[in-house]
Amino acid sequence: MTQIKLHAYFKQWMELYKKDAVREVTYAKYKLTHRNLRRLVPDLTLDNLSRLAYQQLLNDYARTHERQTVLDFHRHIRSSLIDALEEQLIHRDPTRKAIIKGTQHRKHKTKFLNQFELQAVLNNLVLDEGLNWDYFILLIAKTGLRFSEALGLTPGDFDFAHQYVTINKTWDYKSVESGFAPTKNKSSVRKVPLDWQTVIQFSQLTKKMAADEPIFVKDKKVYNDTLNHYLERLCRRSGVSIISIHGLRHTHASLLLYAGVSVASVARRLGHANMTTTQSTYLHVIQELENQDNDKVMKHLASLV
Description:
It is a single chain. By secondary structure, the protein is mainly alpha-helical. The protein has 13 helices and five strands. The protein is globular. The chain starts with 5 loop residues before the first helix and ends with a helix. About 30% of the residues are buried.
């Protein structure tokens, strides 16, 4: 056993195993875990890290955080402690049978709009003044792209002849020095088919732009909050529930599922690593569709007399 402090070991571990191995935004979450460890247990050492001490740490963190956030906190620490166990810095796993608690879910904003609400929003877009943020909103509504993926688009990513756009990079809007960045994962690299209206609109909008020039990012930095506030005002004018830019992605996926598009196709279009992610994210939609399918099955079976 060793008297090294838990937060010191975690810092050493994350710098050794995670720095430059994960995306910058992911590494920032590890650094946040480290700061919370220093705040909550500044003097806790590995040799004093019992199951009781670890559970108390989780409980203290859970007083001001939702359960999912506590679970992420626990996973970060547990990963480091599994390595500490293999290195024989500790002799037992203090995270074994840990109970994950957390505050009740806050009331979140509406995640997606129905078809009529989305149409009301699109009807209020100003699309006759050249390339603007209204076209950004339209594109995400039509494709389901992530915010960073849409920002990273260049004219060269569009294949107007075959009606699709290639997603192979993002725009790192969170860093001080913004620029192109890799996609979220390998599955995020994909070709997203476009409808003919979007093809016509963006072929005209981008024809005089350089092939490798970001379409929506100009001289100044782009902030997610700025676009969310812009969309909020648009939703208010349209008389619909307020959603975020990411909510447009949820709206796109939900409408496709309601239209009868398979979960597998939606997963590929969104760039999900697997269908499980799609199924868990849109479980409420899938369950509603299954109930409708059950009604159809019962009607069909009842007709077999």
